[in-house]
Sequence to fold (283 residues):
Amino acid sequence: MRLCNLILVALMISFLAACSVNTVAYNNAVPLLTWFIDDYFDLQDEQRDFARERLANLLAWHRNSELPEYRRLLEDAIRHSDGPVTGKEVDRLYAQGKAFAARLGERALGDIADFLQKLDAGQIKTLEARLAKGNEQFAREHINLPYDERFEARTARYVDNLESWLGSLMPEQRDYVELTLRRMPLTDEMRFAERKQLQAEFLAVLRSRPPRGELIASVRVLMLAPEQLRAAHYRAETERWGREVPALVAWVVDHATARQRAHLQDKLRGYSEDIVALMRDDA
Fold:
């Protein structure tokens, strides 16, 4: 699951969501997230203490309210992993993951706004420089390479992701992944344009110093619903990807060997057990 990781404050959302199945990262989320935020803003001591306190409260809510839901989703996936898999079922799992991330983001919006109102002009410039540095890296890795290299890298990312769940893919599964991705154009330039647009709008909001309610409303769109600002041609491509990717994943899983399905079930059970352990850590 991905939120608008172009906006720094969304780091706390994406990080918590991603590390929910990593016990070490999750239990150290507060210092790790504080370090991430500090890296972007160069925090003052009072701001750092504020971030730690609000992050600790958010983590406590997430552990008590959200981890049980994550476990239920994993157990549901385990139950369905033995039988036929459809794109609709995969899409349902994706949608549930997005709903988790959106609920976490909504919960954090007030804290995010309170934090952003504490920034001074120098810290906003620090953020701008940090974002520009990230854009340079994005361009090097996704824009400035020849098309064939970019396509091969995209295919490798999909194969690696699938193999992390299933183990080594069979040749016909690899071929299907490549053939499917061949039909899908690269969208790096559109992603980059949106990335820079959202960054510019976010920085403009920070510099305008709106009242808290207006700030929350702006951050809600930029962080949780950036598609509202998306160019029409890019929106069409993302919707197409939203149809193609679940179908691709379903086909690969539906053609999995017994060994691959066992690998998938073991991984899902491992994550479920990790979540149970995290829930006990709060006892």
Notes: The radius of gyration is 20 Å.
